[in-house]
Amino acid sequence: MAAVRDIEIAGAASDAGEAVELAKRHLVQPWPYAGSVGTEARSFIGEGEGIYITDGDGKRLIDGPAGMWCVNVGHRRAELASVMYDQAMRLSYNTPWYTMNEPSAVLAERLAAHAPGDLDHVFFTTGGSSAVESALRFMQFYNNVRGRPEKKLILSRGGAYHGSTYLSASLNGRPRDRDWMDVADGQVIKLASPDPFRRPAGMTVEAFADMLVEEFRATVERVGAERIGAFVGEPVQASGGVVVPPAGYLPRIRAICRENDILYVSDEVVTGFGRLGEVFASEQVFGIEPDIVTFAKGVTSGYFPLGGMMVSDRLLADLRRSNHPDAMYAHGLTYSSHPVGCAVALANLDLLEGGILDHARAVAPYFQQQLKTLEALPLVGEVRGAGLMACVECVADRESRNPLKLDYEVGKRIDAHCHELGLLVRPLIHMCVMSPPLIITRSQIDDMVDILRRGIELTMDDLARERLWVG
User: Fold this and answer.
1) Residue 216, Cβ neighbours under 10 Å: how many?
2) Distance (Å, whole) CA 360 – CA 363
């Protein structure tokens, strides 16, 4: 294997300050506000190693969100960098329209061995949004070919996040995601969020699960199963605040989908590739066999853009048996089955199977246990999570469980304090999300929790001093 080479990037900014100025003049950041679009610079990150990153001032930080749920095997893995270089030198690209490459075929076989049920085929995309979009377009194609053009409506849930492309974004149910953006509302039916923390007052979690299942069943009966093509759900709602659904809820929803010939799409863009200790969590963790699983992020640990959908053999057999053998699934991407991305994913899978999955399963209970101690802080309403993903939700008062007013930007305040103390947090309005690299150790978890605790305490002091909150 070739050694990793240090390559000087021609024209690169010489330091963080220059990069910040270039960004302000030329770079449009994701999810910008109209008042600052095209003039914004965000926190500069220069280097990464293991679970740590280094900012523009040279401060070393624990990478609390692992990039964006994705740097699962950690930063600066020479194994992945070397494979990326070697594959690029062997074959950097081929068109997927009428040629193919070896890494994509081998990766498809490897993923099929881990996928639930009969999901033995994969369509590769460039990320999570395009994976969900591909699944939805497949559902439309599938029903058109089967002579059911009316069976196209999509069921989604409050608090969901499924992407930024048009159809995938139309499924989103988080606050502020949709205020100024057009969406395909006519194609999507929204159900309640499966968030036990926000269940009706006085209701048990078991009764809450019954309510959610009854809502789903009643919606199918009201709208008509003949009009509903798919249900799309994250096993754990990640960007919605790491919402872990009630026990048994997902298998019951799966059963209703099967009874009504509604495709169950399990969105594992975040939960896959070790975040919950398995390559795919749908069956191993939640006991469901979906019709389609979407994935991205951890498949390459963020080292290369890659995503995809695993598709049931049954669905493909239905298409082959149809009366329309010439019908074309007219959907594809220039970078589908990219040889470099697939080669990196194979090396990443080697690392996961070689011990990182075992480590993630072993350390996850300690991760959850230590974060749970933060519930002793008056500002914290609940700490919840699964595997190596968790959310600290702040509330104005515990009795009503009301979140702080959005103007308080409590998550950003906590993140700012934690940054100074050596931890990068992902702030979500009044929530802080933690999803570190899977290689994190117990002592590093202790460091992370200690910093987060202090960041919350300093934020409580700020809010009390400004008379925005009374503990």
Assistant:
1) 21
2) 5
